[in-house]
Design goal:
about 350 residues; TIM Barrel; 14 strands; globular; binds (4S)-2,6-dioxohexahydropyrimidine-4-carboxylic acid; binds zinc ion
Length: about 350
């Protein structure tokens, strides 16, 4: 039985650091575990300018506990995004990628895209400049059932984008369906997908049966067990097409346990540990490093981290705290419905 593992230090390719006093709490936790992370731009005022990026990045770095920590910043794609500003930011290494939210699809996405043809001139430039497009792949359409929104987005929106811009580097983020897995498997090498811990662990029945669990509510919404199994197979099979993006997206407990609860799961603190446990449960620990530490850098044309971490399987399940708190915030930490034995023992710095 494997009890120790040494892997290249992981990165988190999708995280929300929010704003105000929350930034400190969240950055500290992420920087303890990861070297790089792609920072989502869906603040109450979306990030669309160099001034905003510089300010936000500085604030983030102020709270890092890791000298190597590198927040990779993103612009929020609006139909009126200033392309010159984007290109200038990219050429000066201030922006790493651009995030596409269909308008209204999720938290703080009202300023997102309504008419996708309107962003084609921006996508053309991004393709020429090799700026990655990060996609929240769900249509926001009352006529489309919430469980079908990822598939319909791929069929109706993403297919056209790919046809028009075959060389654009695209990440289909936080995929949730077998349909999305198959789509990525069949796509060209410039289209890859990130997968969250919670979508690997939960299905919609977990969220809804007997009593509703607001802390399992996220977007894209949890799908069927067959979909979850397809995600686990995709993540654990060693394919280069899939990598970790935690989509760790905290909301205050009052906003989750509410008549109109927010979408988002905060999973940073035990993310690497539970992913390792999933791979162990599947007998696929040999492929863990690909998913956590290698596939992301390959997709984004970045070097893999030089540091390594040592994971250790303890004889007893680990205990994690339930909440992350400060004076103003109380955030539920995601707890998977199975025991976690894998812990991070140490880091090897070259
Ligand atoms: O569940 C989610 N929460 N999904 C998203 O896409 C956004 C996120 C958030 O920002 O709260
Ligand atoms: Zn997100």
């Amino acid at each position: 039985m494997t009890m120790m593992l040494e892997i290249v230090k992981p990165d988190d390719w999708h995280v929300h650091f929010r704003e105000g006093k929350l930034i400190k709490l969240l950055v500290r936790e992420t920087s303890k575990l990861y070297n790089r992370t792609i920072v989502m731009p869906n603040l109450s005022t979306p990030i669309t300018s160099i001034t905003q990026i510089k300010k936000y990045k500085k604030e983030i770095l102020n709270h890092s506990l890791n000298k190597k920590f590198e927040p990779l910043m993103t612009f929020y794609l609006t139909e009126s995004l200033d392309v010159d500003e984007l290109i200038k930011a990219s050429k000066n290494n201030l922006v790493f990628a651009v995030k596409l939210y269909p308008s209204g699809a999720t938290t703080n996405s009202a300023k997102g895209v309504k008419n996708f043809k309107n962003i084609y001139p921006i996508l053309k430039k991004m393709s020429e400049e090799n700026i990655p497009l990060l996609v929240h792949g769900e249509v926001n359409d009352k006529k489309i059932d919430i469980f079908d929104r990822e598939r319909i987005f791929i069929e109706n929106i993403l297919f056209s984008i790919i046809k028009e811009f075959p060389d654009l580097k695209i990440t289909l983020e936080h995929i949730t369906t077998k349909f999305a897995v198959d789509f990525v498997e069949r796509s060209k090498s410039n289209i890859k997908a990130s997968i969250t811990p919670h979508h690997l662990i939960l299905n919609r029945t977990d969220m809804l049966e007997h009593k509703i669990k607001p802390h399992y509510y996220c977007l894209p919404i949890l799908k069927k067990e067959d979909d979850r199994k397809a995600l686990v197979e995709a993540a654990t099979c060693g394919s280069q097409n899939f990598f970790l993006g935690t989509d760790s997206a905290p909301h205050n407990i009052d906003d989750k346990e509410s008549e109109c609860g927010c979408a988002g799961i905060f999973n940073t603190i035990n993310s690497i540990q539970m992913i390792t446990q999933i791979f162990d449960n599947e007998n696929k620990l040999d492929n863990l490093e690909n998913f956590l530490s290698k596939n992301g850098p390959i997709h984004y044309s970045l070097p893999e981290n030089k540091e390594k971490i040592i994971l250790n399987k303890s004889p007893r399940p680990l205990k994690f705290k339930n909440y992350l708190e400060n004076d103003d915030h109380k955030i539920r930490i995601f707890s998977p419905p199975f025991p976690i034995y894998w812990d991070i023992k140490s880091e090897i710095i070259p």
